[in-house]
Write a structure and sequence with these properties.
Layout (H helix, E strand, L loop, with lengths): L1 H22 L3 H25 L5 H33 L3 H26 L4 E2 L1 H6 L7 E2 L5
Antiparallel strand pairs: 1-2
Helix pairs in contact: 2-3, 2-4, 3-4
Length: 145
């Protein structure tokens, strides 16, 4: 039994080293994703309270865990794309584009929850902010929807 435990411990240690090496330089992206999830959770709860909705902790935890796993998956996919295509292009354009798209969508959600919580009329659209020269065009009139 001890030999089996030693083999399992050795295998898990080796896998842990490989995983730690893979994610070592991605800690900033992972931390940024986790921060976005926490901020979205906070402002989402505050916006739901303002709307008079019942807050169910089990649903909030489930959605938060799902988002965290989603972002871990996206960062992993971006790193794999960087290791595959980054060498041939010189710059990890594919991975940066994927992460920008995913994190921009989450930032959009955070901003809209914050705007709703603060009682500001309108919606924030990061895609309009990116396309427009004037930042004020990123705020839409809520009555036009």
């Amino acid at each position: 039994m001890t030999d089996t435990n030693n083999m399992l411990a050795t295998f898990l240690t080796a896998m842990g080293v490989v995983i730690a090496d893979f994610y070592s330089h991605l800690s900033g992206w992972l931390l940024f994703g986790f921060a976005l999830v926490v901020v979205d959770l906070r402002f989402g709860i505050l916006a739901a309270k303002k709307r008079g909705e019942v807050i169910r902790p089990s649903r909030a935890v489930r959605r938060t865990v799902n988002k965290t796993i989603d972002y871990l998956s996206w960062v992993t996919l971006a790193e794999l794309a960087s290791r595959t295509y980054g060498v041939s292009l010189g710059v990890p354009v594919v991975s940066l584009g994927a992460l920008f798209f995913v994190y921009a969508a989450e930032f959009n959600s955070c901003m809209n929850n914050y705007i709703e919580y603060k009682g500001i009329k309108g919606r924030f659209d990061i895609w309009k902010l990116i396309r427009r020269k004037d930042v004020s065009d990123a705020l839409e009139d809520s009555q036009s929807e």
